[in-house]
Design a protein that fits this description.
With about 350 residues, this protein is of the alpha/beta class. Helices cover about 40% and strands about 15% of the residues. It has helices spanning about 15-25, 50-60, 80-95, 110-115, 145-160, 180-195, 205-210, 215-230, 250-260, 275, 280-290, 305-310, 320-325, 335-350; strands at about 5-10, 30-35, 40-45, 65-70, 105-110, 160-165, 170, 210, 215, 235-240, 245.
Amino acid sequence: MSQTALVVGASGIVGSAITQLLIENHWQVAALSRHPSPTPGVIPVAADLQDPASLSQALANMKPTHVFITTWSRQATEAENIRVNAGMVRNVLDAIRPAGSVRHVALVTGLKHYLGPFEAYGKGSLPQTPFREDQGRLDVENFYYAQEDELFAAAARDVFSWSVHRPHTVTGVAVGNAMNMATTLAVYATVCKRTGRPFVFPGSRVQWDSLTDMTDARQLARQQLWAATTPAAANQAFNITNGDVFRWKWMWRRIADYFDLAPADYPAAPSPLERQMADDQTVWTEIAAEHGLKESDIGRLISPWHTDADLGRPIEVVTDMSKSRIMGFTAYQASDQAFFDVFDKLREERLIP
């Protein structure tokens, strides 16, 4: 039976990774984003997820068997996050409903399922680590829950299976992405090397000392494809990380070594990147001109607010993956190599020197 995928948010870190994996596995792929980039073997679909009429028109002739929803839109408040992001999921599922072709929908959310939304991130009463999928929802409004509820309602109505994927911080490459730690740290390291500033870890002492994990976008893509094609994985939520754990005091040295920097000792107080990099546009403009880089607008490359949120957490964050492991998902990715692969690709694409 032929399998045709619609990837929603295909230009992002997660969407581009699942698009590439599907192509490698000989799927037909339609890539939906507001401004799709030409990709060999992929059908570009331009639409605004917040505009139902735009979606209905763009998807009128599409008959996807599988849908991968990999995007979200950051809003000023959690109430707006819920309205906008739940609406986008609903709009996509409503637009493809007339075709009657969908067999499975995968939704990517994240560990804010356990940690709470940005307005209450890592605060209050939280479940103990490692986070497990059978831990209930927090008693707080959360746009991830609203997205899930839209998915569950559509699956019951239109009779398709679903999977929810909850990564930790995702590493990958996508210019203009709102959650982009690896590229942010690469740009920060490049600026430090250029200016002679110390390469200072920006987060909390807890994150520096405690165990943590991360998620390579390619690892997340592997799990999405596995869940979409494994009957036993239908109608399940899964945590997804690389499969290893580390401490930032170790990883910071690994990243410093890659850029031929000396890592600074942990500072007397947290030094967030939003503060450290607030005036770095000028130096980045000079670096971009000197090395012929593709992107001279530092704001298109870095997301210091999100990196600060992840690295500034006052609690240990470790994720349990037993559920999918027991069911047969065995892929693994070393987290330091995941960073190095992103840095290599950034250099290959002339985004960093």
